[in-house]
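Q: My labmate handed me this sequence with no annotations at all. I'd like to see what the chain might look like in three dimensions before we decide whether it's worth expressing. Could you predict it?
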Amino acid sequence: MKYPSNIRKLFSVKKLLWRACRVQPNNIQLKNRYCQIQVECRRCLSTRKYELEREQHIIESGSTCNFYRYVNSKLLCSSGVGCLFDHNGLPVTQDSSKANIFNNYFASVCINDDGKLPCLLFHVRFLMTSVSIT
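A: Here is what I predict for the chain of 134 residues:
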């Protein structure tokens, strides 16, 4: 499991302080700083564990309301689509301009329908005469 960057940084500082404490075992300031970082690491790890358990509970709860609330809390841009850049490299923030950028892109990569049906290897041998929705 990959930890977030703040926890990885704390681990690296803790590692450096541990090495320094091994070189200078009588340095009280280094030992105190190491103990502070160790406490901070434990606090960050327990917070991370709580967040992961909360995420797992929300996903497994089956409540679509809680699930979408969680997903929306993780979105970086609350308006939906963040800032885009046009073909000149200029930022675009208006919704209509963003829609045009997406339209031009998808039109350039999608295929036009030529009206020809693909050749299918298997055919359905029965027809449904009626469908009842209750």
